[in-house]
Amino acid sequence: MLGSAVNPGGPSATPSQGAQEKPAWRASWPVAMMFTVRTDDLVLALDIGGTHATAAVVSIARHGVVDGTLMREAVDAGAPAAVLLEAWADVCRRAHAGAGRPALVGIGVAMPGPFDYEAGIGKARHKLAALKGVDVREELRARLLGHADETPVRFGNDAAVFTLGEWWAGAARGAARVLGVTLGTGLGSGFVADGRLLEEGDAVAPEGQIWWTPYRDGVAEDYVSARAITAAYARRGGRTADAEAVAAAASRGDGRARDAYGDFGHDLGAVLSKWVERFGPEVLVLGGNIARSWHLFAQAFDDSLDAPRSLRIAVTAAYEQSSLLGVAALVSQEW
Q1: What is the pLDDT of residues 198-222, one digit of tens each?
Q2: What is the pTM of this model?
Q3: What distances in angstroms separate CA 144 from CA 140, 151, 167, 332, 333, one per listed residue?
Q4: What CATH number is given to the structural domain containing 306?
């Protein structure tokens, strides 16, 4: 199964010497196809992270980001609500301006939980706590379009729409059933069947979220997260370090760091085995910053995962751009 893991390239991928130059609108595939603007099918997509916000204009017809619209801005998740909302609106304005401020068929927002995605109202008590009880839909609409504007604003869980984006335009494009997992500060997940996100039923985790399902003496996220890697390294006598620093140590040959990532891979495989069996995905896609260190835990993961040989495992090539594409796909389903 290990040999089935795929990463088709990334931002630094270049054509082989002597290869025929690709058409301009395909030049950045597979990270996310970019092209010049067409004005009748455009979505303004926003991805909210704990330390940043990323926005772009996405074409529904071409399943990709419009060239010159991908924008990113540092944001303090602990800031007051008005500061957060204005920072998000600003990065959206810059993305929209990059496309020439065309008409939009909708706005899509990838938001970490807890959040009332249907109502567009914040529920968080820790990260983005200032937004608790705030109508984020109307606040963003007012800043970007004006209160009277009726352009739809759609919200989706960040990990769930990452998975939808990978189905819509990424490593799992067109697969009947896709399980996506984001690996970072926490453990995110999404289940896609026939192009629709699933959040209920016996085959999926409650609300589509694996992180809080029971595992060992806690929940899955206790063992599959950045803090789990930090703790595993410290238990072996390593200094206190974040997951990125532990990965760097492992790449330099630090055995304790390699073992910490081995523990992570083992636990990830054990956690996902249950959901692979129940849901039966054709493709399992891994994303999030820890997925960039796939080479450090791939073998342990493969040894631990109980899955059919037909399962295709892919590491995303698009990372956060998949969430932008995913929220555009959400908007397109109501367009």
Answers
A1: 999 999 999 999 999 999 999 999 9
A2: 0.87
A3: 6, 10, 29, 20, 22
A4: 3.30.420.40
